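Quick one, tokens below. Sequence please?
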């Protein structure tokens, strides 16, 4: 039986320990800030990115990994006869998954590379990647791994709060809504991504709206506390309130593992300062 290796992109939320323990290959995206390019996670950290974003004249641009980098990675992973499962951020957010598919064809390894759209990003993508990596280490087949990943994907939730709409509007991510929302004062929006599509779930004004958002999400977690083992809380620049939010989740069920961490540049770029997301799935 050939070995199965796991590949993902740098928008994923994983700890260094998880990446090393489960032998996960992370292919970095590229970030351009005022004309200067950086390789995500290689020559710019997440906290450094936020500082540079706030100092930049223009909205940073994030782009999928170059095809050549993907080709090289796929050739390296399959050189010993291994199969590869690649799990990537939602196609609605990036062309990364298409680049991976194209690279597999160029590398003449399409039959040995299985590619999955996580339909999300960040820790939700991480849940799927970790499940695949653990299953691979346990010797499960590709079909078993794919079924497990799809089960997680079909039961996962992203609840995101954007408190400053400037970056979302500049990046065109709000589509037809942007013009109307842009004219409102102190508007915040709650985003969700059902089936991989970014949707505005609710909008409201000020901190009161954010508190109601937190309350609603915590109530959902409480209602499903026996079916949730993992929660990810990812943020742009607000670590203290996010750790307080994590404490509230632990109060609901101390057995829930909560990872609080800075989000990736691709999310920070569009969500802007003060944004945060709560990600989990039901078992």
């Amino acid at each position: 039986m050939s070995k199965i290796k796991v590949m993902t992109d740098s928008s994923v939320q994983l700890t260094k320990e998880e990446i090393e323990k489960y032998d996960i290959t992370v292919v970095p995206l590229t970030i351009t800030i005022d004309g200067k390019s950086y390789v995500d996670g290689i020559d710019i950290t997440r906290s450094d990115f936020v500082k540079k974003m706030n100092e930049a004249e223009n909205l940073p641009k994030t782009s999928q990994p170059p095809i050549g980098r993907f080709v090289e990675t796929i050739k390296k992973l399959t050189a010993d006869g291994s199969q590869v499962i690649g799990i990537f951020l939602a196609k609605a957010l990036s062309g990364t998954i298409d680049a991976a598919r194209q690279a597999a064809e160029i590398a003449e390894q399409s039959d040995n590379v299985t590619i999955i759209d996580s339909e999300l990003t960040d820790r939700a993508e991480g849940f799927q990647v970790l499940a695949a990596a653990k299953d691979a280490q346990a010797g499960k087949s590709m079909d078993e791994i794919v079924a497990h990943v799809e089960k997680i994907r079909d039961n996962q939730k992203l609840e995101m709060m954007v408190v400053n709409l400037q970056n979302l509007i500049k990046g065109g991510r709000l589509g037809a809504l942007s013009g109307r929302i842009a004219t409102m004062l102190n508007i915040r929006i709650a985003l969700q991504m059902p089936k991989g599509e970014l949707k505005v779930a609710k909008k409201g004004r000020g901190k009161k709206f954010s508190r109601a958002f937190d309350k609603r999400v915590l109530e959902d977690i409480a209602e499903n506390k026996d079916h949730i083992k993992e929660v990810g809380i990812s943020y742009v620049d607000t670590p203290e309130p996010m750790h307080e939010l994590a404490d509230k989740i632990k109060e609901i069920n101390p057995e829930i593992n909560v990872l609080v961490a800075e989000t990736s540049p691709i999310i920070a770029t569009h969500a802007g300062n003060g944004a945060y997301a709560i990600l989990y799935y039901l078992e």
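The two ends are 29 Å apart (CA to CA). The first strand starts at residue 4 and ends at 9.
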